[in-house]
Design a protein that fits this description.
By secondary structure, this protein is mainly alpha-helical. The protein has one domain. The protein contains 14 helices and 2 strands. A two-stranded antiparallel sheet has the order 1-2. Helix 1 packs across helix 13. The longest helix is centred in the first third of the chain and has 33 residues.
Length: 341
């Protein structure tokens, strides 16, 4: 029972990370296409500026839970998938540096370099997250000793690439909706148009990804065994269909909430589809790591559950307060602040 609880909590932490850091990543990937002037670029940076580092806490939390609750999964995952995870780490590092270094020198050339670093690092992070999770759903070639019999290029299979493109489109849509909330005037109009284009891309790639999921994974088998799980894809589709309607009605926060619900349901759809598996071996089914054969001791899980039940709500309340505090649009006057990016 505790193993299942922690499996769900592990999924939830990843889902929250995708929702919160997803719009940061998506905004960065949209930067060169949506922001043409220096003022527009600074508004894009400051739309995510107060949030991006706090949002990454959920990535650390997901990694920490993997280490503490499922140490065997952590050990094999960070060994077998060392290369893509290291690339993801570098992408997030360069993303962080681009925020802080961009305005250190008053030079258009200097700022242009960091704008490209910001764009490429966010783009890479979006794609790498999609490739990573798509391969987790499909399975990777690991043996009973947790040794990975493959290479980085092997992860760039058709299903992995489809997952990367799907994640990129989802995060860009999520980020564009966020920018409609945080901007006004021409930039908001462009953000609204970008959200519509990205929505179409998400809808198309969702169909492609689901088709490939049927042929490349066993995810749908769990939905036949546990029909009640069908609520996840139904909610996901409903939330996605609501996004353009809400945007057209000017209900921007509700549209962002619908986009967030879509992301959460998609994350749970994939991960619950492989339950109880966590790291599937495509070489030997006996080498697959599950929530049960890789979990920590019962005492460890009990202590951690108590800590999580206290600390996670506190962090959520803090982030809710922070989002409420910085909920108003970014204006040109805000860019004059010494704290602005």
């Amino acid at each position: 029972m505790l193993e299942t609880i922690w499996f769900v909590l592990w999924t939830l932490l990843w889902a929250v990370y995708f929702v919160l850091d997803g719009f940061d990543l998506g905004l960065g990937a949209l930067l060169p296409g949506i922001a043409r002037t220096e003022e527009e670029r600074r508004i894009v940076y400051n739309a995510s500026g107060p949030f991006w580092d706090g949002n990454e806490v959920w990535l650390i939390a997901a990694g920490g839970v993997t280490f503490a609750a499922f140490p065997r999964v952590y050990a094999v995952m960070f060994s077998a998938l060392y290369a893509p995870l290291l690339l993801l780490l570098f992408a997030l590092i360069f993303r962080a540096v681009s925020y802080e270094f961009r305005n250190k020198v008053d030079s258009p050339a200097w700022r242009a370099v960091w704008d490209w670093v910001h764009f490429l690092s966010n783009l890479a992070a979006c794609v790498l997250l999609g490739v990573f999770f798509a391969n987790l759903f499909m399975g990777i070639p690991i043996d009973a000793d947790g040794i990975y019999h493959g290479n980085l290029l092997g992860l760039l299979n058709i299903y992995g690439l489809a997952g990367g493109l799907f994640f990129l489109a989802v995060f860009m849509m999520h980020g564009a909706i966020w920018l409609t909330i945080k901007s006004r005037g021409e930039l908001q109009t462009k953000a609204l148009a970008a959200a519509g284009v990205c929505w179409v891309a998400v809808a198309v790639l969702l169909l492609v990804f689901l088709a490939l999921t049927f042929f490349c994974t066993d995810i749908f088998a769990n939905y036949l065994r546990m029909p009640w799980l069908i609520v996840l894809p139904v909610l996901a589709v409903a939330a996605l269909l609501m996004v353009p309607r809400l945007l057209n009605a000017g209900k921007l926060w509700t549209a962002w909430g619908a986009s967030a619900l879509f992301i959460v349901c998609v994350a749970f759809f994939g991960v619950m589809g492989i339950y109880p598996n966590m790291l599937i071996s495509s070489m030997d089914p006996q080498a697959t790591l599950t929530a049960f054969n890789s979990a920590s001791t019962t005492l460890t899980l009990e202590i951690m559950l108590g800590v999580a039940l206290v600390m996670v709500p506190i962090v959520l309340l803090y982030q809710f307060w922070m989002y409420r505090l910085f909920s108003r649009p970014v204006t040109p006057d805000d860019l004059e602040s010494d704290h602005a990016y």
